[in-house]
Amino acid sequence: MTLSSRQARRVLLDRLITQDVGQCTFDEPLSEHNSWQIGGPADLLIEPGRADQVAAVARFVNQFRIPLVVIGQGTNLLFDDAGLRGVVLKLGENFSAIRIEDNRITAESGAWVPGLAHKAMQAGLAGLEHTIGIPGTIGGLVLMNGGSQRKGIGENVRRVEVVSREGELLELSREECAFSYRRSALQGTGVVVVRVELECERQEPRQIRRQMLDDLRERRRKFPRKEPNCGSVFLSTSEMHASVGPPGKIIEEAGLKGVRIGDAEVSHRHANFIVNHGNASSADVLALISHIRQVVDSLIGFELCCEVRYVSPEGVIMPAHRAGL
Ligand SMILES: Cc1cc2nc3c(=O)[nH]c(=O)nc-3n(C[C@H](O)[C@H](O)[C@H](O)COP(=O)(O)OP(=O)(O)OC[C@H]3O[C@@H](n4cnc5c(N)ncnc54)[C@H](O)[C@@H]3O)c2cc1C
User: Fold this and answer.
1) How confident is the model at residue 325 (pLDDT cuts 50, 70, 90)?
2) Please, which pLDDT band fits residue 128 given cuts at 50, 70 and 90?
3) What is 5-93's CATH number?
4) Side-chain half-sphere of 297: how many Cα atoms within 13 Å?
5) Per-residue pLDDT averaged across 58-86, rounded?
6) Parallel, antiparallel, or unpaired: how do β-strands 125-126 and 77-79 relate?
7) What is the DSSP letter of 49?
8) In what order do the strands lie in the sheet with 169-173?
9) Which end of the chain is more exposed for a tag (fewer CB within 10 A), N or C?
10) What is the pLDDT of residue 1?
11) pLDDT confidence tier of residue 104, bands split at 50, 70 and 90
């Protein structure tokens, strides 16, 4: 009797969980691990607590060619309704220690960004104010070079520790990470960010706090608050701002606010957000993204590109507008 590929993978995953790799859960619904609350089951979800556990997982999946997807809080990800035929490695609460020395902050990659920004403020360290409202982990933020007010976390990165596909622990300088607008050289390489060292400027905590409160007030005013969403769906580059304006404005002017496919809807509050009214599927979101792009392209001849990443059932991560192409 021969095993199906699914059975063979299960045999391997049963072997993987006998190693010291962290907390393991089979057939975990991915809808519980991303802010859109969408996605079918992953064969195996692993939540490590140490870098050597991350390295053990990397070595094993590399040896047996098992798809691996690394996530933090899943606030920039769209999982497929079919889930994932492989391993999700979640770097979150179990991997989130933060240490502050002088003007340097060292954080494990699962540290929650608003908590990290808050700790920096208490220590009188400025530079992370723009991240106070970003609900992801520092690992995800570094990979995406995320930020707000046209800033990126890369400006404060001093060095990053990563685990390579082969399970080696490597150290990268800011220059090696090659940060640019919402991009880093780490994207697409399959490395796992395990630790980040940030460098900040000294400032009065009260002044930093004021800045953070202003930022949070502005976000509350502009962004949808109740319905599950994934932040800005489309990228907003400075060239785009100069030529056609920000995506939210373009989509609103195209009359697309409130357009709905299934339970996915272009937010009434901010047109660069797609909200889930309860049972949106990945297919609904992808169809809505495609519709928005077609309308905008036909009206102003501009091709919107996604900031949000889609994860295929085979574990390929891509900007969501490329899904299905
Ligand atoms: C309400 C809301 C507001 C938002 N506002 C902003 C904003 O102002 N600015 C902004 O830039 N973003 C914003 N986002 C998007 C998102 O929060 C950021 O991109 C965030 O940094 C992603 O972190 P995460 O832990 O959720 O990453 P995930 O969504 O889990 O992953 C994002 C990408 O990073 C990879 N990744 C995650 N962790 C690691 C790791 N340790 N090692 C290697 N790869 C990793 C994943 O494979 C994936 O490709 C917002 C999202 C929401 C829901």
Assistant:
1) low
2) very high
3) 3.30.43.10
4) 9
5) 97
6) unpaired
7) S
8) 98-101, 104-108, 192-199, 157-163, 169-173
9) N
10) 54
11) very high
Question: Mean pLDDT, the chain, as a whole number?
Answer: 96
Q: 34: Cβ–Cβ under 8 A, 6 or more apart, which residues?
A: 71, 73, 74, 75, 77, 78, 79, 230
Residue nearest to atom 52 of ligand 1 (CA): 231
Q: Per the structure block, which two tokens stand in for 26?
A: 């089979």
Q: Whose CA is nearest to atom 9 of ligand 1?
A: 147
Structure tokens at 244: 């056609």
Residues 216/134, Cβ–Cβ less than 8 Å: no
CA–CA gap between residue 139 and residue 215 (Å, rounded) = 22
Backbone dihedral region for residue 150 (phi beyond 0: left; psi -120 to 50: alpha; all else: beta): left
DSSP state, residue 306: B
CATH of domain 96-209: 3.30.465.10
Kindly state the greatest CA–CA separation across the chain. Answer: 70
35 noted as active-site residue: no
Question: Count of alpha carbons within 13 Å of 60, Cβ hemisphere only?
Answer: 23
Is 322 designated active site?
Answer: no
Residue-level pLDDT at 182: 93
Is-catalytic flag, 307? yes
- Rounded to two decimals, the pTM is 0.96
Residues contacting ligand 1 via CB (< 6 Å) = 35, 70-77, 91, 109, 134-137, 139-141, 143-144, 146-148, 192-193, 223, 229-231, 309, 317
- Shortest-distance atom of ligand 1 to CA 193: 42
DSSP label at residue 234? B
Substitution candidate for ligand 1 out of 96, 144, 196 with most atoms within 8 A of CB = 144
Least Cα distance to 288 among 309, 255, 256, 261 occurs for: 261
Rounded CA-CA distance 271/273 in Å is 5
Q: Which of 182, 195, 293, 309 is catalytic?
A: 182
Q: What CATH class is the domain 225-322?
A: alpha beta
What is the residue extent of each domain of the chain? Answer: 5-93, 96-209, 225-322
